[in-house]
Amino acid sequence: MTVDALTDVAGLRVGHATCTGDGWLTGTTVVLAPPGGATAAVDVRGGGPGTKETDALDPRNLVQKVEAVVLTGGSAYGLDSASGVMAWLEERGRGVRVGPDPAHVVPVVPAAAVFDLGRGGDFRARPDASTGRAAVEAADASEPGTPVREGSVGAGTGAVAGTVKGGIGTASVVLDSGITVAALVVANAAGSVMQPETGALYGELLQGRTPYPSAEVHEAARRRLAEAISRNGAPPLNTTLAVVATDADISRAQAQKLAGTAHDGIARAVRPVHLLNDGDTVFALATGGRPLADENPLALNDILAAGADVVARAIVRAVRAAESVDGAGGVWPGYEELYGGR
Predict the structure, then answer these.
(1) What is the pLDDT of residues 53-68, one digit of tens each?
(2) What are the CA-CA distances from residue 266 to residues 4, 121, 134, 255 (Å)?
(3) How far apart are CA 156 and CA 145, in angstroms?
(4) What sign does the CA torsion over 52, 53, 57, 61 have?
């Protein structure tokens, strides 16, 4: 039984730490690999990324597998949340072995941050090591195959997608081969997720199954959004993050290709993307439980295509699950509140 989430990839678990109230609107999300780690790669396309340990994922370099990936709010400050995840892993002897004692490990924890500073009202309210530890503990406490909370949670707590509230979204698919491909995203884009003429979500238009909002609903939504923009002042800074994962047994180079093509899913659901002030980053994870067909050198193509599909669908789900915010840091209506009745 699948739950249409990243956790459909056997062995992966997801935990959120959500920080709200008293000037806070931020958080951290951790994707925890099974003990022994997962093959990992990354592709960074935004011109202003906030990342940690991404060089370690280059297929030319030493590290073969990682135990966790961190997605966080707080811009570059929030990358401190990875330190809490590192400490948790070290306590369990999980990481790259660097000495004769099994406890001599260095956990390599790649991380990427979205910009959400000040969205709760306090610019200094951002994730730290304790937030990262809370998120990895939540992941560890979850059962395998658990549904993943979406919307305004974890790293998506303070996310904004264009002029509407962003958040966390996830999706998965099982291919004819039996291989699972899944994604988890933090939708926090400066680009729009909506067609301006109709209010329809770009990601749903490409799926060919979207009834357009009525003209009356769209006009009312436009008035609400215009009012919010006037109250918020400068447009938000941004970044869309994703983890795309599979249970296929693929190499680090193949995982890097998967991370790269998964960016196509962002481009389908957000316009524009990959600008100088974006930090768009996609991590790829492979747990290696299912071999690719040796007789078919193009077997990876199905996984690559599916990766872009689930990323686009996860962005749609993030936006639809996000809850409206009206507070000291700004006003961002939720898409469902604006268009749910169509």
Answers:
(1) 999 999 999 999 999 9
(2) 18, 29, 28, 17
(3) 21
(4) positive
What is the residue whose two structure tokens read 């609400």?
Answer: 224
Burial of 224 (0-12, 13-18, 19+ CB in 10 A): middle
Measured CA to CA, the distance from residue 39 to residue 20 in angstroms comes to 34
CB 248: neighbour CB atoms within 10 A? Answer: 27
Over the chain, what is the mean pLDDT? 95
Residue 315 three-state SS: helix
User: H or E segment at 9?
Assistant: none
pLDDT above 70 for 209 = no
The string of DSSP letters for 126-157 reads ---HHHHHHHHHHHHHSPTTPPPP-BSSGGGT
pTM over 0.85? The answer is yes
- Residue type at position 192: S
Q: Is the pLDDT of residue 238 over 90?
A: no
Q: Could you tell me which of 279, 265, 274, 261 has the C-alpha nearest to residue 315?
A: 265
Nearest in space to 307 (alpha carbons), one of 253, 247, 251, 252: 247
